[in-house]
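haha ok so turns out i had the wrong file open the whole time. this is the CORRECT one, sorry everyone. sequence first:
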Amino acid sequence: MKLSIILPVIAALTLAACGNLSKVSKEGTTDNPVWPNPTKTTFRHDGTQHGTWPNWDNVRQIEAGMNKDQIYGLIGRPHFQEGLYGVREWDYLFNYRENGEHKTCQYKILFDKDKNAQSFFWLPEGCGPKKPAPEVVREVIIREVAPAPAARIRQ
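then structure:
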């Protein structure tokens, strides 16, 4: 009878562990992020292009302390076979254009023991959303020039 309880527990723990590539601490950190093969995404378009084209404004909003539901609402489910709930690591593959050239970035989020996001990694390093250029505000001053008083002509 004990065996009938132990086997399902072992199977559940094994499946939950399959979604973690990196050794994630209880604080949601790692010294060695491990990246999935980018051709193994669950998102494929036309058989050749992997990943998604994200809304970079949404990606920029992600910060430490957010929970999985909040991140899911911003950028969707992870792009690899991590699972949504039992894992502490989500991986994404994002497409973008830079100077007319198609590029991809891998994005990794690590979660702490309470399932809140704590660590964020990009591959290649420095990839990801750039801060938007500051908006240039030009102030236009319109001055109304009062007409000169009419000159009197004396004859």
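Residues 2-18 form the longest helix (17 residues).
again sry for the mixup
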